[in-house]
């Protein structure tokens, strides 16, 4: 038996063709998505989250992931050291002879990873399995994460380990319960 | 005095949403707890207050939450609990970090600040922008706090702030 996703109507999905959600996903109000999006089972995207970067980039979350309220996942950005930092229509850029290179790169949340409230994640990052990031943190581009570690700060630094065994056990309990339920039905 | 509440907000439990006179709630706010707001309070745009119907946010008179702040009234302990949203019928115990948040009189939290569960912001406390308030933080009345996590950097002028509030009250009485 499936668990229906709960997707608020007050959200903006720029590219609905590329918006995929699995069973049990929750997306709360006022979220904004301008990338391709794939959300795995029971992943939760809380209120007022923005995931930006354009149609060419992908934000992908595995099962049991969490994106805390107000967090921003940036999947493409201009290089502000030597480029304009506004959005200018591509035809104007072309005829004016201005070349802008986006420092792009999708963001991947692996199985059981999560970020707290008001966290900013910059492009080209892979949150390894079980990674958790504390509220108000900043994750620079291409950060090297270790699995099952908790990070905090701006920029982030590791502070302690998560209990991999207990958390996996909880996820397994849920999968087993769902299996029992579907067998019964 | 009228209250001003934007129509573009989401109130998950409208039966438990109380707002006092002269208070303002701006656009794109999200409330998933019981909310009890006093007089002349201000909640700026894009504020989220989350935690479920069992928890409460209480704001006493003249307190404020500035744009983009997040008040968390319930959370999971990520050291040993799952972090995703699950139907309550599931046989899993989580949400071990919980507790409402109280803003006493004259308290203000700056833009994009994050307040974790189970906190009482004592009278007159000021929180700087982008700050993080950990659970069960011990506040001094009228202290100014900033940082991730917060630390105290100064004091607010209690007498000056209270005098302004008194001026407002005297003005209101003269209008009656």
CATH architecture assignment name of chain A: 3 Solenoid
User: Helical stretch count of chain A?
Assistant: 2
Look up the CATH topology of chain B.
UDP N-Acetylglucosamine Acyltransferase, domain 1
> Largest sheet of chain B, described in full?
8 strands, mixed
Give the percentage of residues in beta strands of chain A: 25-35%
Q: Which oligomerization state do the chains in this entry correspond to?
A: heterodimer
Spatial strand order of the main sheet of chain A: 1-4-7-10-15-18-20-21
How many strand units of chain A?
21
In CATH terms, the superfamily of chain B is: Hexapeptide repeat proteins
Q: How much helix, percentage-wise, in residues of chain B?
A: 10-25%
Descriptive account of the structure:
- The complex is a heterodimer of chains A (185) and B (176).
- With 185 residues, chain A is α/β, with parallel strands linked by helices.
- The mean pLDDT of chain A is 92.
- Chain A has a single domain, classed as UDP N-Acetylglucosamine Acyltransferase, domain 1, CATH 2.160.10.10.
- The longest helix of chain A has 21 residues, at 164-184.
- Chain A is built from two helices and 21 strands.
- Chain A has helices spanning 90-96, 164-184, and strands at residues 6-7, 12-13, 19-21, 26-27, 32-33, 36-39, 44-45, 50-52, 58-61, 66-67, 72-74, 76-78, 102-104, 107-109, 114-115, 120-121, 125-127, 132-133, 138-139, 149-152, 157-161.
- Chain B has 176 residues and is mainly β.
- Chain B has a single domain (4-75, 94-175), classed as Hexapeptide repeat proteins (UDP N-Acetylglucosamine Acyltransferase, domain 1, 3 Solenoid), CATH 2.160.10.
- Chain B is globular.
- The termini of chain B are close together.
- Classes of the chains: A alpha/beta (185), B mainly beta (176).
- The interface between A and B is large, with 44 and 32 residues.
Name the features:
heterodimer; A: 185 residues; alpha/beta; UDP N-Acetylglucosamine Acyltransferase, domain 1; 8-stranded mixed sheet; 2 helices; 21 strands; 15% helix; B: 176 residues; mainly beta; 6-stranded parallel sheet; 1 helix; 32% strand
């Amino acid at each position: 038996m499936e668990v229906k996703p709960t997707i608020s109507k007050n959200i903006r999905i720029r590219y609905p063709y590329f918006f995929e959600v699995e069973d049990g996903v929750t997306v709360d109000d006022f979220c904004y998505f301008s990338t391709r999006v794939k959300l795995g089972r029971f992943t939760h995207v809380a209120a007022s989250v923005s995931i930006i970067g354009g149609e060419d980039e992908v934000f992908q979350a595995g099962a049991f992931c969490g994106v805390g309220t107000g967090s921003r996942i940036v999947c493409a950005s201009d290089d502000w050291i030597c480029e304009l930092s506004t959005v200018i229509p591509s035809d104007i850029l072309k005829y004016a002879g201005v070349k802008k290179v986006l420092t792009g790169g999708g963001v991947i949340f692996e199985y059981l990873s999560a970020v707290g409230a008001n966290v900013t994640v910059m492009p080209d990052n892979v949150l390894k399995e079980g990674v958790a990031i504390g509220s108000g943190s900043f994750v620079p581009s291409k950060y090297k994460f270790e699995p099952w570690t908790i990070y905090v700060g701006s920029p982030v630094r590791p502070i302690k380990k998560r209990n991999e065994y207990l958390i996996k056990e909880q996820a397994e309990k849920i999968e087993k319960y769902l299996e029992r339920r579907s067998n019964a039905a | 005095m009228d209250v001003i509440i934007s129509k573009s907000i989401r109130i998950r439990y409208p039966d438990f949403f109380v707002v006092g006179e002269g208070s303002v709630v701006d656009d794109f706010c999200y409330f998933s707890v019981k909310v009890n707001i006093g007089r002349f309070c201000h909640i700026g745009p894009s504020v989220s207050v989350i935690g479920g119907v069992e928890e409460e946010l209480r704001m006493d008179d003249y307190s404020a939450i500035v744009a983009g702040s997040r008040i968390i009234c319930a959370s999971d302990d990520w050291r040993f609990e799952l972090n995703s949203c699950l139907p309550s019928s599931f046989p899993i115990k989580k949400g071990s970090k919980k507790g409402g948040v109280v803003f006493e009189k004259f308290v203000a939290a700056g833009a994009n600040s994050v307040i974790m569960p189970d906190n009482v912001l004592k009278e007159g406390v000021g929180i700087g922008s982008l700050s993080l308030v950990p659970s069960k933080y011990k506040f001094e009345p009228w202290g100014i706090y900033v940082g991730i996590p917060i630390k105290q950097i100064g004091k607010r002028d209690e007498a000056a702030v209270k005098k302004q509030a008194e001026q407002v009250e005297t003005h209101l009485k003269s209008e009656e």
